[in-house]
Specification:
This protein is of the alpha/beta class. The protein is built from eight helices and 14 strands. Strands 1, 2, 3, 4, 5, 6, 7, 8, 9, 10, 11, 12, 13 and 14 form a 14-stranded mixed β-sheet that branches.
């Protein structure tokens, strides 16, 4: 399969048709390159706040309500594009009201026109306050025509027990948004570690660039990246593809499900299998005072 992962800039739209044209152009570019799976970033849907105007964008609660109100239409557009082109799309996540709280939800759209979702479990400080977004499970594993797919939204990929619970996944999708280089590198390092531990392929997408009218997304630092275990059948550095930082566009890589199965069964190491040894009861920690 061919994967396309986005370094995605947020735009200010005058009308819904402008957003529709942008998303369609991005999808068609990736399809023209032969892509089977497209991955958009965390909170990329926040650009929909522009359709509610600058006053809504200037208010945290109003901006969340404005974006959430448009997500059914956004999902319908994604479903139509996925079905029309015979591809799978992880749409950009958005804050969604669920059961009296706001969650960070990423919708996944299949080539058959199905839509499912994964919510983020662990919130960053910024999401806790001022955004007021809460974690929401459960973790999920999607059986798809492309293989088993799991999603860790941004900060979630920095907690290995989450991806461990999804260890059957062949692909771990990591949509992210980070305002600084430090955050970008934390996500990238986390995604690479998860690929090593689970002997899978991890895919990072990012928002990039300024968006000054929305304080919550005033600036983003990121790049697309597709990572793998550094073992038989994969690049020795564990990088299938990486895009330049803060340059909008797609990053592409060819991924072989057979290569993932092979490295798990016959690779030079067996991180995925040997995990249980690290989780065994090791007894009390022996403390040795050498002062």
């Amino acid at each position: 399969m061919k994967i396309a992962t986005a370094a995605y800039p947020l735009d200010w739209f005058a009308a819904w048709t402008d957003y529709e044209a942008k998303l369609t152009a991005w999808v068609e570019e990736a399809v023209a390159a032969g892509s089977d799976l497209l991955v958009f970033p965390e909170y990329g849907a926040m650009e929909l706040v522009s359709l509610a105007g600058e006053e809504a964008a200037a208010d945290n609660d109003a901006s969340i309500r404005a974006v959430a109100a448009l997500m059914e239409d956004a999902n319908a557009l994604h479903r139509d594009l996925a079905r029309r082109h015979g591809i799978h799309i992880l749409g950009a996540s958005a804050p969604i009201p669920v059961g009296g709280k706001i969650v960070n939800r990423a919708h996944f759209h299949t080539a058959r026109g199905e839509t499912v979702h994964q919510d983020k479990l662990i919130m960053t400080l910024w999401e806790r306050d001022p955004m007021g977004v809460a974690g929401n499970g459960p973790l999920k594993l999607f059986e798809t025509a492309l293989g088993r797919i799991a999603i860790n939204i941004c900060y979630d990929c920095q907690f290995p027990l989450l991806a461990r619970a999804q260890r059957e996944a062949d692909l771990l999708l990591v949509p992210s948004t980070t305002e600084a280089a430090t955050g970008f590198w934390r996500v990238r390092i986390g995604a690479r570690a998860r690929a090593l531990e689970a002997q899978c392929v991890s895919v990072v997408s990012s928002t990039v660039g300024p968006y000054p009218k929305l304080e919550l997304m005033e600036t983003s630092h990121g790049a697309g990246g597709i990572f793998c275990p550094p073992d038989q059948g994969f690049p020795v550095n564990g990088i299938l593809a990486e895009g330049p930082e803060n340059v909008p566009g797609w990053t592409y890589a060819e991924v072989s499900p057979e290569a993932i199965a092979h490295v798990r069964a016959a690779g030079g190491v067996r991180n995925r299998t040997h995990w249980e040894e690290s989780a065994a009861d090791l007894g009390p920690l022996e403390r040795i005072d050498l002062r």
